[in-house]
Amino acid sequence: MYYMEKVLFLSVLLAFSLFPHIMSIPFDERDLESDEKLWDLYERWQRHHAVSRDRNEKHKRFSVFKENAKFIHEYNKKGKSYKLALNKFGDLTKEEFKGSYASSWVEEHKMFLLS
User: Fold this and answer.
1) pLDDT tens string 87-97
2) 13 falls within a domain
3) What is the separation of C-alpha 9 from the centre of its chain, rounded to a whole number of angstroms?
4) Which CATH number characterizes residue 76's domain?
5) CB 100, CB 92: distance < 8 Å
6) Domain range holding 31?
7) Any signal peptide, and if so, which residues (predicted)?
């Protein structure tokens, strides 16, 4: 079952990466040069996705966002056949994403997995 959940999680991520111009914001290496530039990117991301956080939560989420942005940038530098993007899940950890979104998607689509 773990294998199927992993495949589904990656499939969901891939599906969200197919529409980066609609669901994400563009960024490049210059946006990652300093915490100040990353903060600007984070605020731009929040505006794009209409995300609002209180001060404490915003700082906690910024740390997660930084790691995700750096991971996405490093992955995309590898020149794979698809690209990752900063979508609306950009300040969630993998565990939070799986717990909130992927697991409900898996439950709703189990009948397709069993056939």
Assistant:
1) 999 999 999 98
2) no
3) 12
4) 1.10.287.2250
5) yes
6) 21-114
7) 1-24
